What does this fold into?
Amino acid sequence: MGGAKNCPETPRQKMIGMMYLVLTAMLALNVSTDILSGFTMVDNSLHSSIKASSERNEKLYESFQVALEKNPAKTQEWYDKALEVKAQADSLFNYIQGFKEDLVAGVDGRERVESMKAAGQDPTLSIQNNSDLDITGTYGLVEGNAKILKENVAQYSQYLTSLIDEKNGDLSRTIQATLATGRGYNAHDRDSVDWEVAVFDGMPIGATMAVLSKMQNDIRTTEGQIVQYLMDQTDAGDVRVNKLNAYVIPNSNYVIRGGKYSAQIILAAVDTTQRPDYFVDGVKINEHGIYEVTATGVGKKSYNGEIVLTNDEEVVKLPFSSEYSVGEPAVTISNVDMNIMYRGYENKFSVSVPGVSNDKVRVSVSGAPVRQQGGLWIISPGENVKKVTISVQAELDGKMQPMGSQEYRVKQLPPPTAFFSVREKEYPTGNIAATLLSNGSGTIVASYGADGLLDVPFTVTSFKTIINNQTTPATGNKFTKAQLDQIAKLKKNQMVVLQDIRAKGPGGQELRLSPLVLTVN
It folds into this structure.
């Protein structure tokens, strides 16, 4: 049996390219820990894929062992090479695991990493400082570890391809494409930056973890491809046909909508002189057993089929089934320095979980009431509340699963600025035309101005004017007749001083604003 089908750009390459595009676009952005849940979901899916690949590989080694016992003369050489492949794959896989643990130790501390390992837990699956932007560049680029990793992956790729003969060039090219460490992609063009820069420069540690987990998955996938290839070389047909197994080897179990799910369906321990027929959901696919389908819709996708082999006029049918996940391409970005809510104000939040519909997302808040309105979550902290924690859960496989939480500081709304408003234009302290000031249509307003970050309704309730040293009070937000009469008598460069301006905000608290000084011109 030969290698995988050759094509200009495999679905795996497209997935890698898409990941590089997303990661490179995030280089200059601050990303909070829980907002990286999209990458966390990818990383978790990759861990499941790694586990499945490892189990498939173990079954291949078991089949190889059976073949060795049946026919050692034909199998010993290839079995020894398979064991060497296993040793090389384990070595590189463990090196990357140590690389990941060093990154986590850089943000969470070595003591926590070692404590979790001693307790039998993987510290890379629960990073406390998941949005750290410094450790990946420092450890990977400044300290030179990314270059060492790149060299190790390249050496592993060269070692695997050295085991493949020339007539199986398709398999060699597949291995090289899967383990490629050439120049990476950015959002505008390809071949723009070195691989290690694309993966580690300015990357949040949570995003880099997903890339490193993908590399570990690639190692297990290519290990299985080479071991299967070595089994094919034994030519021990009389032994291998004694145990038939159907395997589904996907390039990845996680697919972004619009991407392609690709899997190799193989019959292990089959005589290489006989080609089986492959059927998926009743439809015959190509002779190499490569199943491809464009991913549409979000969620789990499953399929069934069978491998049909005619052996000495006996028809053998081996059923198989597999599944993969389709996720919605999504990224959520926030400025961690602006994790602030305001008292007495309806703070509006948009909450989403990649791959999960909004009706299956639940939000709870400690320290403040929360309600849903028009697709947004409205949170209104009360007086004396200093911190609020937002927790998000999502329904996955029929169970509510925690997706993360975020803490916000609670601040008092900043005091607004007083303006003289007329004809929908706000005039701050400064010069103003006499006709605008005295025509009686103007009002005193309180706001954060045209460039303010918040649009909060404030109402001016009273103020006083000082005109020619005469103080006159007013209730509401408009000049009284007495004040207008005084303004009408002003000459050029004379001033109207508005002081003791009182305004109420959405919380009902009365604020005293800074004076407003208007000069007639």
Summary: Residues 339-411 form a domain with the Immunoglobulin-like fold (CATH 2.60.40.1080). The first helix runs from residue 11 to 25.
